[in-house]
Specification:
This protein is α/β, with parallel strands linked by helices. It folds into 3 domains: about 10-135, no CATH class; about 160-375, Mur-like, catalytic domain (UDP-N-acetylmuramoyl-L-alanine:D-glutamate ligase, 3-Layer(aba) Sandwich), CATH 3.40.1190.10; about 385-510, Protein-Tyrosine Phosphatase, Chain A (Alpha-Beta Complex). The chain has 18 helices and 15 strands. The chain has helices at about 10-40, 45-55, 75-105, 110-125, 125-135, 140-160, 170-180, 200-210, 230-235, 250-255, 255-270, 285-290, 345-360, 370-375, 400-415, 435-450, 460-465, 480-490; strands spanning about 160-165, 190, 215-220, 240-245, 275-280, 300, 310-320, 320-330, 335-340, 385, 390-395, 420-425, 450-455, 475-480, 495-500. The strands form 3 sheets. It has a 6-stranded parallel β-sheet, with helices on both faces. It has a 6-stranded mixed β-sheet with strand order 10-11-15-12-13-14, with helices on both faces. Strand 8 and strand 9 form a beta hairpin. The longest helix is centred in the N-terminal third of the chain and has 33 residues, at about 10-40.
């Protein structure tokens, strides 16, 4: 089908659009989609959360500038498939639809108008194009994931290790690594690395690292919604389940504390009749579900006598460089005096949980002295670093929750130092509780810190309002961690102590 040019230069205009402008737009879209993909990946490929972030950060969701990234985009197979599909969809949308308009709507001005409209829609709808590409690739990804999961299931069935599941609103990663050290010889124990706490992360650990020598498999179990821990349990079939805490972490995603409680308890519900539940009865919510659990034996751990813990501690001496304590098994009266490098009262929960699991798996209390005393803090979780120029750094930047933040401030308060400085963006994903939690945190920080540096705008109002109740604290506000580092460089001197409490994911920093 052909048309007479409606004006001189019409053919040149079309060729310019097809051979110059659309390819240039495709290149621009590839770059923008890659930046959008970074945020999508940081949000765990959760489509709803990604789109919600885009609505809340409209100026950044144009993806025109390259942000500074602490955690770079990882171009996995899935990431490449989404990116390529989204780029193809973008180009086809601005090429095919105007082409149809040209052929069937009489050419000018429908074709050029359709091109302009589609270019605008694709440009401003980039987040939805990315989500559409992910939806298009879902069957392919499901096939790949299924094959990957079946291979891991076959391997797990062949090796048959004792599987220990660890979940909780906070403390699960540190508890997992403590269990890994206490439960058996290093060569006999495999634990999911870092925060590999999803089915695919666990499957990857099995496929890449599990050998016939592994007698124990420690699995961290994370979740953003009801049913996700149950899915993990059907996959790995834990025989020991550890519940560290039930609290408001990720409340914004779960919607309610009751939903969090149900989700975390899925691990205990999944245990077989011969299994064992290990539960932190210092936490009132965990204590309540422990009291209601009857289908499996429950080993209770904690420091508070009102929880009637089976594994507890006495003669606790907290110092700025570690803790001395006596671990007690109240079921038989066994005792063990130890010194650990772990900091803070809440870290004792990690030790007691790991002790309970080790005993439940067949070790005696006396065997655990050397493993306990060799425990080291997990990276970025109340980790003491001797910085340059005589400055001491307390690195608690991995993530934060109200209890952990209070414990970190307690450690900071116990340490000698000229100036005590807190650098923090506050606590995130607490839903309706977030403002009050950050105001309370700011008030506690103001009681301990000489200087409080509040990073990013997200919790700035709440933290500064709480800190303002203390008259001796200097409050500094910055938009990014880079700016905070510059402020620190101007005030730090030998003998100072700096606490880095939490570190916002890249998508939260302005």
């Amino acid at each position: 089908m052909s048309f007479t040019d409606p004006f001189w230069g019409y053919s040149i205009l079309l060729r310019t659009i097809v051979y110059v402008l659309i390819p240039l737009f495709g290149i621009l879209q590839f770059v923008r989609l890659r930046r959008a993909l970074h945020v999508f990946q940081l949000e765990g490929y959760k489509r709803r959360e990604f789109l919600a972030w885009c609505r809340a950060h409209r100026h950044r969701a144009r993806f025109l500038t390259k942000p500074t990234a602490k955690k770079p985009l990882v171009m996995t197979g899935r990431a490449w498939r989404i990116l390529i599909t989204a780029t193809i969809v973008s180009v086809l949308a601005v090429l095919v639809i105007p082409g149809v308009a040209h052929l069937f709507l009489g050419g000018w001005p429908a074709d050029v108008g359709a091109w302009a409209v589609m270019t605008g829609l694709v440009f401003f709808g980039t987040p939805r194009v990315l989500v559409l590409a992910d939806q298009v690739m879902t069957p392919v990804q499901a096939t790949i994931n299924g094959r990957f999961m079946r291979a891991a299931q076959t391997r797990l069935t062949k090796v048959e290790p004792l599987v220990v599941g660890v979940t909780g609103s906070f403390g699960k990663t540190s508890t997992k690594f403590a269990i890994e050290r206490l439960i058996g010889r290093r060569e006999a124990v495999l634990a999911t690395p870092g925060s590999f706490n999803t089915p695919l992360g666990v499957a990857r650990t099995i496929n890449e690292h599990m050998t016939d020598a592994h007698r124990f498999f420690i699995v961290e179990m994370g979740a953003y919604g009801t049913g996700e821990i149950a899915e993990l349990c059907r996959f790995v079939r834990p025989r020991i389940g550890v519940l560290t805490a039930i609290g408001p972490a990720h409340l914004e995603r779960f919607g309610s504390i009751e939903a969090i409680r149900r989700t975390k308890y899925e691990l205990v519900e999944a245990l077989p009749s011969g299994g064992t539940a290990v539960m932190n009865v210092d936490d009132p919510e965990v204590r309540a579900v422990a009291d209601e659990t009857s289908h499996v034996p429950v080993v209770r751990y904690g420091l508070k006598p009102e929880g009637s813990p089976d594994i507890t501690a006495r003669e606790v001496d907290l110092t700025p460089r570690g803790t001395t304590l006596t671990i007690v098994d109240s079921r038989n009266g066994d005792e063990l005096g130890v010194t650990t490098h772990l900091l803070g009262r809440h870290a004792l929960g990690h030790v007691l949980a790991a002790t309970a699991v080790a005993i439940a798996s067949g070790r005696s209390l006396v065997e655990l002295k050397t493993p306990i005393e060799s425990l080291q803090p997990v990276d970025h979780r109340l980790q003491i670093i001797d910085g340059t120029g005589g400055v001491t750094v307390i690195d608690d930047a991995y993530n934060s929750n109200p209890e952990g933040a209070a414990a970190a401030l307690e450690v900071l308060g116990s340490m000698p130092g000229h100036q005590k400085i807190v650098v923090t963006p506050g606590i995130v994903e607490l839903g309706p509780l977030q403002h009050q939690a950050n105001e309370d945190f700011g008030e506690r920080a103001g009681q301990v810190a000489d200087i409080l540096i509040v990073v990013a705008r997200l919790n700035r109002e709440a933290i500064t309002a709480g800190a303002a109740r203390s008259t001796g604290t200097r409050i500094v506000t910055v938009d990014s961690l880079n700016e905070a580092q510059k402020e620190l460089a101007a005030v730090l001197r030998a003998g100072d102590v700096v606490l880095f409490e939490n570190d916002l994911p890249d998508q939260y920093e302005d």
